[in-house]
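Morning, I've got a small favour to ask if you have a moment. You're getting the sequence in one-letter code plus the fold written as tokens. Thanks so much in advance, here it is:

===
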Amino acid sequence: MTEHKLSPAEAQALAEATADAMYSRDRAAQALGIKIVRVQPGASLLTMSVRGDMVNGHHICHGGMIFSLADTAFAYACNAYNKTTVASACHIDFLAPAKEGELLEAEAVEQSASGRTGVYDITVRTSGGKTVALFRGKSYRISGEVIAGLQQADQA
């Protein structure tokens, strides 16, 4: 059986539907106030405002919060094809502090996708354009779909 090739409009609609389905169940992203600005096949842009409960003892954004934002952007980019995908490895470099009240943007871009694996680069910036962190994630596709049954219905 050959897989149905999606048009660009169908691929975009699938990415958006997948993101909506994921976000409806993503209690961690919701709790952190992460918002989806855009998602497309293999890419995403998410934002998060640095709240008072996100700063550490140096009164800057806790690295784990920045990591969570980047990891979430990674997840939405690599799951945009509606094929359940998880992280197999990731690395983050913190380049500058983020402060309470700043809006952070995490932009994820697919660098490679082949077979079950992918590589994604995520840049975390302040809304003013200052780069806060660089994150690289490696993905692994497992069985299943974000929206169960959708792919089979499209191929029928």
The CA atoms of residues 107 and 122 lie 5 Å apart. Residues 8-25 form the longest helix (18 residues).
